[in-house]
Amino acid sequence: MKVALTYNLKKKDPLKPLDYFSEYDSEETINSVITALKNKGHSVEAIDVDYPALFSYFKKNRVDMVFNIAEGKHGRFRESEVPAVLDYLNIPYTGSETFSLALALNKALTKKILKAENIPTPNFQLFVRGDEELSADLVFPLIVKPNCEGSAKGINKTNVVNSREDLFRKVRECIDIYRQEALVEEFIEGKELTVGILENGKTRVLPILEIDFSNCKKSGEYFYSWKMKEFQGNTELGLVPEFYCPARLDKDIEEKVKDVALRTHRAVGCLDISRTDIRLDKSNTPYVLEINPLPGLDPKESNFPIMAYAAGMKYDDLIEAILISASERKRLN
Predict the structure, then answer these.
(1) What pTM was computed for the model?
(2) What angle, 0 to 180 degrees and rounded to 10, lies between the N-to-C axes of helices 251-268 and 98-105?
């Protein structure tokens, strides 16, 4: 099969915030996906979506499938950019379609759908200006997040607040820096989990991954902040979470968590692959924090491959499974 890999390469720019390119992929991830596809017998051409002639490239070059890991370039619907071009040119690609990608990047809209589907998600309020009246239904502690960002951008330990003063300071800061609405939601203090869904012939819920932040006292980061994701494993900074896959859960709770993740995957309309972040409250109710239809595929550090390995898969098999799932959809259409 002739495959084009679309990606954004991680870079540095002193004029941009430190977390600006966090969603982009490293050279190691890009090369690992290319190698996996070649090992499975496919020919591969890698295309950075910063390439100015992306549209004309696909008009001039025939490919059987696009393996898409691109985050896009601009705006709150950026993850839909490459799929939108491919849809227009009638070129098949892996992963979710334009609507699901745009929806999942908007945390507040996603949460409205989850609530409509009776899927537990923390109570929330969206702040557009930063001076709205705080809803009386919200209970501290609260966490403040940019509404349309991924990879924990804009989130650190100071985003968890316990007072109105700190809340509104953080909301205004979020709006000013990220030029978008601030999502405020109740902070669920409990076990952090993430659940991968893989569709390869049948929909498969991978073993649940538990992230334990007990050893992160030095950093004070007890959840997946940007710093935790970017510098994970750094002992100097105290960013040393422990991973358990399968998670340390009773069978009943495990099944409940998997069911919630699968329902979230379907509610948002994801295809081929997704990863849902969940926290258990004190009564072991699984609350969906968000869903990522474009989860990271770094073979060593990303959560999704860790879950695939726990399911007995090798990295090459995971990449091939994503490709085959998309190919099957193409055949059926």
Answers:
(1) 0.94
(2) 120
